[in-house]
Amino acid sequence: MPLVADYSWARPSPSLLRQHYVGVVRYVGDWNANGKYVSPGEYQALKAAGLEIALVWETSAGRTLDGFGAGQQDAASANDWANRLGFPAGRPLYFAVDTDVWGWGAVAPYFDGVRAASGRPVGVYGEFDVVEGAADAGIPYRWATAAWSRGRQSGRAQLYQYARPAQVAGCDDNEVLSPDWGQDVGAAPPPPQRREFEDSLLLN
Known about the structure:
- This protein is an alpha/beta fold.
- It has one domain: TIM Barrel.
- An eight-stranded mixed barrel has the order 1-2-3-4-5-6-7-8, surrounded by five helices.
- Helix 3 crosses helix 4.
């Protein structure tokens, strides 16, 4: 199965990542913070290695609980960061619900703010109920995590983050569930296909 890595503080080499993954999801956030977030140099090195890249905004685990205004502010900042990196216009930005919020309602105002200010398609990272609520709310990109999902796995996500040891230390493994998972494919090979698409090709 095609896998994507996500990582924050680790800095595995792009060549090592390319041995195990078709792409990566990297963090953007506060410009004044050091260490966690992707730099323009790292972004270009990942692309040069043939890795597809998506971006996720996170400043704190509970930020998405801070309401509409916080969503507007973060969307504007995330878009600015993406533009500085050269992330293509029209590609989505994920926003992380990196805690157990017990459902979509607690974070819906934040994502209303994100959608009001983003200018890009919006993605959400979170547990089962968050992903299901995001799908019902019309958010097009959804990245599900095993964390806080209590054994449930949504069938409405483009990526699924496993709770298991990863292929590369310091990373998380994510299964690619859709050809379009929000990535910049600029210097990379075509995106992987879902298994059912592969099966249909074998049958034809």
